[in-house]
User: What shape does this take?
Amino acid sequence: MTADSVPRLARGCRLAEDREHGPVLLIPEGVLRLSGPGPEILRRCDGSRNFAQIVGELAGQFGSASTDRIEAETAAFLERLRDRRIIVVE
Assistant: This one.
């Protein structure tokens, strides 16, 4: 994941709110429950923000963590989702 990478949800995937479980990611294979910063990361993966902008926004929201940590954890999270074809990176 580079600073200029622009992630977005893949076709057929979308965020939703489940009354019982909270934020979930609907994917063709089923449903993924989201926790921690996952929903905040994915809300920003709309194809209009690059990775650097997403990290900057998250750093502003989660100011108690270092920017380096936010960047590393966000990149790892998005790369796992890219490997599963849940997000597309342009």
Q: What stands out?
A: The longest strand covers residues 22-27.
